Amino acid sequence: MFDVIIIGAGPAGMAAAIYAGRAKLDTLLLEKEFAGGQVAKTYEVANYPGIAAIIGPDLALQMQEHAKVFGISPVVEEVTEVQLEGKTKIVKTRKHTYESKTVIIATGANWKELGLPMERTLRGKGVSYCATCDGAFFDGKVTAIVGGGDTAVEDAIFLARHSPKVYVIHRRNQFRAAKVLQEKLFEQPNVEVLWDTEVLEIIGDDTVKGIRIKNNKNGEMKELEIEGLFVAIGTIPNGALFTGKVAMDEVGYIQAGEDCKTDVPGVFVAGDLRRKVLMQIITAAADGAVALYGVEKFIIEEYDQIVG
Ligand code: NAP
């Protein structure tokens, strides 16, 4: 019987593991592919306090080494089923069935991709999914952002501080972003909105050199010279395993406040799978710490009271 099983070894899961190790809890950290989550797929991270600049996979490795110092290493086994109700939580993988007093769900979310041929190749080489993470790398460079939600509009306002010119490319003629954000966007002199427009192709072999776009109303096609393409068309939560087992919002994010507690006693959610205003490494790591604090309190104050 573990004290805590942490599912997912991204920054949230790693932070929880570090705190669990320091708290000397009997801990199992499960990961389906490689530690680091989205960080391991990020080119460079330059906004984590204390580390001025680091390659994403290196930061992931450092987090892994850090957890190891406290005796915890990720076990690479994909979770196939969870039973979260009741006193003993059951977590099954293809190889084993584990039991625990508590569970921290830290399986995160993925950025939605446009699905264009060069998109993955040029990720980190001009293609980005996070303007607040990567925008500063594009100082003095022309950029474009795709999307029409809060993220795209907010990110375009952020990018306008770095780029001499920002194109906002939206497939319809109306944003779904909050009106206050839209008003702020329209005040930016260096932002041009291209309505009813889709990106057909990303141009560039080693780095982004431009995009080919199409107006879906009149069929007009053209090329834009840009060095950064920011994709802000939403995220996909990695929470299918937990559907119907903890409360989720309509999109599939697990509902929990800043205390990271789900509606199931002893079950916590940390990182990008918890809906929050800013999905970044630092906020995911913070969740991991808070969730583990919740685990400790739950074990001391509530676990023994549960009949089962
Ligand atoms: P979102 O609200 O789902 O918006 C996604 C945008 O991308 C939409 O404009 C959509 O177009 C467009 N889109 C989707 N798939 C596309 C595709 N394949 N090609 C081109 N465009 C595509 O996502 P979000 O902006 O990331 O926001 C997610 C949630 O977080 C929302 O609830 C939002 O309110 C919240 N949020 C809040 C804040 C804040 O309060 N400050 C900041 C960021 C996010 P259509 O409009 O045509 O569907």
Question: Could you characterize the architecture of this molecule?
Answer:
With 308 residues, the protein is an alpha/beta fold. It folds into two domains: 2-110 and 235-303, 3-Layer(bba) Sandwich (FAD/NAD(P)-binding domain); 113-231, FAD/NAD(P)-binding domain, CATH 3.50.50.60. Helix content is 22%, strand content 26%. It contains six helices and 19 strands. The chain has helices at residues 11-22, 56-69, 131-134, 150-159, 179-186, 281-301, and strands at 2-7, 27-31, 44-45, 54-55, 75-76, 79-83, 89-93, 97-105, 109-111, 127-128, 143-146, 166-169, 191-194, 197-203, 210-215, 221-225, 228-231, 235-237, 267-269. Strands 1, 2, 5, 6, 7, 8 and 19 form a seven-stranded mixed beta sheet that branches. Strands 10-17-11-12-13 form a five-stranded parallel beta sheet, covered by helices on one side. Helix 1 runs parallel beside helix 2 and helix 4 packs parallel to helix 5 (179-186). The radius of gyration is 21 Å and the shape is elongated. The mean pLDDT is 95. The structure holds NADP nicotinamide-adenine-dinucleotide phosphate. Residues 114, 146-152, 154, 171-172, 176, 232-234, 277 line the site of NADP nicotinamide-adenine-dinucleotide phosphate (NAP).
